[in-house]
Write a structure and sequence with these properties.
Oligomer: single chain
Number of helices: 3
CATH architecture: 2-Layer Sandwich
Strand order of the largest sheet: 1-3-4-2-5
Distance between the termini: 27 Å
Number of strands: 5
Number of domains: 1
Structural class: alpha+beta
CATH topology: Alpha-Beta Plaits
CATH class: Alpha Beta
Radius of gyration: 15 Å
Length: 117
């Protein structure tokens, strides 16, 4: 799997809201999709409580995005943002073959880093 986005491993914490968005896209809409997703990522990053966004690509074409907000309320504010709602509708109309969304609250965080040398 290849990953895109900015990592924030050190800033993960219990109580954060985590959204897992799995999708398959229509290949003919890829250039329009990239334009819309860039704008939505920028808007999400400007949303108070944004922590991290990363997308992974599987060999079978499925994409998985993991989006983290500091609180469930911050995640809900992004979910309900009018720009995001318009992009969601455009995704259903133009970009996606299928998608699923799972949202949960982080109950545990563990972090390990190999020391240099």
């Amino acid at each position: 799997m290849a990953a895109t986005g900015q990592g924030a491993v050190g800033s993960f914490a219990g109580g954060q809201a985590i959204t897992i968005f799995r999708s398959r896209r229509r290949p003919e809409a890829e250039s329009d999709y990239q334009r819309v997703v860039a704008a939505m990522q920028a808007a999400a990053r400007d949303t108070p409580g944004f922590v991290d966004f990363k997308t992974f690509s599987a060999d079978d074409g499925e994409k998985v995005s993991v989006v983290t907000f500091a609180t469930p309320a911050a995640q809900q504010a992004w979910r309900d943002d009018p720009r995001h709602r318009r992009a969601q509708q455009q995704g259903r109309d133009d970009f996606y073959v299928e998608y699923s969304i799972q949202v949960g609250e982080c109950s545990h965080v563990s972090h390990w880093v190999r020391e240099p040398g």
